[in-house]
Amino acid sequence: MEIELDTRGGPSSGPYFEDAEGFNMPEPPGNGSRRIPLGDFPTGPEVGSRLPDIVATDQAGRLVDVHADRAGQPAVVVFYRSAVW
Amino acid sequence: MDAYRAAGVRLYALSYDEPDALADYAEAHDTTFTLLSDPDSEVITSFGILNTLIPPDDHPWYGLPFPGSYVIDADGTIVAKFFEHNFAIRSGPEQLLAAALGQEFEVPAPGGSEPADRVSVDVRIDGDRLPMGVTRQIVATFRVPEGQHLYSEPVPDGLVAAAIELDDNDGILSYEPVMPPTSPLTLSGSGDTLAVYEGDVVLRLPVAQNARNMQKDDDGRFVTISGQLRWQACDDVECFLPESIPFSFRVEAGFPVLGDMGPGVGRVPAMNGAQHFQRLIDRRAGTEPRDEDQ
Questions:
Q1: Chain B residues 32-91 with CB within 8 Å of chain A
Q2: What are B131-177's pLDDT values in tens digits?
Q3: What's the pLDDT tens digit per position in B214-232?
Q4: Which CATH superfamily does the domain covering B110-256 fall into?
Q5: Residue whose C-alpha is closest to residue B4's, from A76, A47, A50, A69
Q6: Residues B243 and B231: beta-carbon distance below 8 Å
Q7: Which A-chain residues 3-62 have CB contacts (< 8 A) with chain B?
């Protein structure tokens, strides 16, 4: 899949830049953290398929296998940018 | 989180942060759901959602996913997913929980003045606040009398599909609507087959705001979201006239809670954000101090 970079937007007030949806940040659209796709982009496994295995360390340092840990309950799995910034 | 616990739905949030950054975040924010650490973006890559627009030497941004959420049922099957192209947008907790519960929504009792042979409608916002960039859904419920149906897009000229339409609200963004399954209906005259809704129909329209048009009064910051519901009911013999009702919501608005990265320390819970950010850069750029240097 060819992914196009969204570089729309431009300077707003002061040191800020506004993207095409009006979100304002110190970095210009298309730079660093603001490299977002313009059109189609991959969104991973499709609806109807099984969620692939996820094994990762949690905030308590415990190794978590999501499918085992949820113990038969439905779940929401969020992929987000960072807890730090 | 109480709503998730009561509903028996687990919540996991994965990022490319180190476990100790997650520990500091969880302590600062009293997080009770599971934060997962994927510092080498292995899980992100295995899902095929690594943001490949970011060059591998662009620290600390390389390793980020195209952000989004998956909703899975008890068997582990994905029943819904929400990805928006702008990472400034994320799906609100109400929206994700509704998807996990199969979009169930308590259907309000029909209005007292509405005859039982007419469609009755209700519209509300699922959630009480609209922080910048976090979606909430406008939820429209249509109670369709037995023997009648509403149409889903696309419809031929002359018919009106059931829809939530927003006015041109400055600063308000809307996304892909969540619609219930339809059943096919073949028109006896033309032989055309249309997609119709019957019974209790719930349409959901995710909306967000970009903080460019928040207003403020004595009760605090807010945004206004206005629009209308449109629909046209038909039975097997005839169609009624198209109908619409306007809505306008005043919704409490604000900025999302961020880490304690920059100026304004004290306004947000402290979690050593600047130190973790520096470590994120150092580790990825390979400039991490060696043990003997410390």
A1: 34-38, 43-44, 46-49, 51-54, 58, 61, 64-81, 83, 85-91
A2: 888 999 999 999 999 999 999 988 888 899 999 999 999 999 999 99
A3: 899 998 899 999 999 999 9
A4: Thiol:disulfide interchange protein DsbD, N-terminal domain (2.60.40.1250)
A5: A76
A6: yes
A7: 3, 5-6, 18-19, 21-24, 32-33, 35-39, 41-52, 54-61
